[in-house]
Amino acid sequence: MGAIKDQIAPTTGRGPWSPSARSGGRDWIDASPSRRCPVCGGDSWCQTHREGATVLCKRVAGGREKENRDGVTYYVHRLHGEVREVMEPLPPSTERAPVEALDAAYQVVLRNLRLDPSDREGLCRRGLNDQAIEAGGYRSLPIEGRARLAKAVLEEVGEDAARAIPGIVWKTADDGHGWWSLGGSPGLLVPVRDLEGRIVALKVRRRDVEAGQQRYLYLSSARAGGASAQAALHVPVVHARLDAPLLVVTEGELKADVATHLLGAPVVGLPGVSSYALAVLLAGALQPRRVAVAFDMDRIGNRFVARAAQQLVAALRSAGHDTEVWRWNPAHKGVDDHLLALRDANNGVCDAR
Fold first, then answer.
1. Predicted local confidence at residue 3, as pLDDT
2. What is the pLDDT of residues 177-187, one digit of tens each?
3. CATH class of the 99-224 domain in this structure
4. Which DSSP symbol is given to 234?
């Protein structure tokens, strides 16, 4: 199963990542293989101020001895009169950070945000209760405070990893002053989780979109020269607590979360119907007794969606899975809408199984 999980989880070209000592934000550069400590030559733990005159070395004693908030001792070295280099920020990385770093960074973003009452009300209207909303980890992404969020990410994972996090971008003012920030349109943040519950991407449900525009967009740094988000299969965080022989496959993360809550069985969300092969891999990992394909009912008039559904059913059956296709009143577009209508029509009881 491990090999299958590796295929389901987002891949990256970057090497292993492990949590480092917290940095001091955008004014301090963490030591890394590409930027070694000028005092001890180490490639981790130590930090150098961007202007190059001050080094916080955790290996070589000298200057003032201090202790950071994690209880780690370090020494403040002043490079008076020595040749030093003004440290420019590392450029954004087009190679996505490892999954562990993605999860750590996005958890920090969510911890530093709240859910606006209007977004909470919208989630309740879709059928979620307070417990399900808390489990989903949804937050509201405002326009303001983006530099503060990026700083929190840098403090958690270090600059070398942060510059490879989709959504972390470098901004430059007219006077040349630069800073790390968090991109993305304002809206509802929806965590995208893998089979192990790690957050591998964040999607924004944008507000006030015009006709023809996409409602949901990943946090990405691609337009700023950085890493793009991985189009990953979303597995609701509560799936491990659901002892059900049925696995339902739909498209969309929030839709999968809502349907899982209403149905009481795992409903996973593809990033797009053309990514149906991810569902086949997941079914191979979980080995449910039955798999149901529940794409939106617009497949009736959408040949692209209908063909993807047919290909998914054929692939699942070819892999030996007992597979069925769910259909419902086309007045309810998604499986979440269908399940909510069932619940409301049956005095709060929803059972489409």
1. 47
2. 778 899 999 99
3. alpha beta
4. B
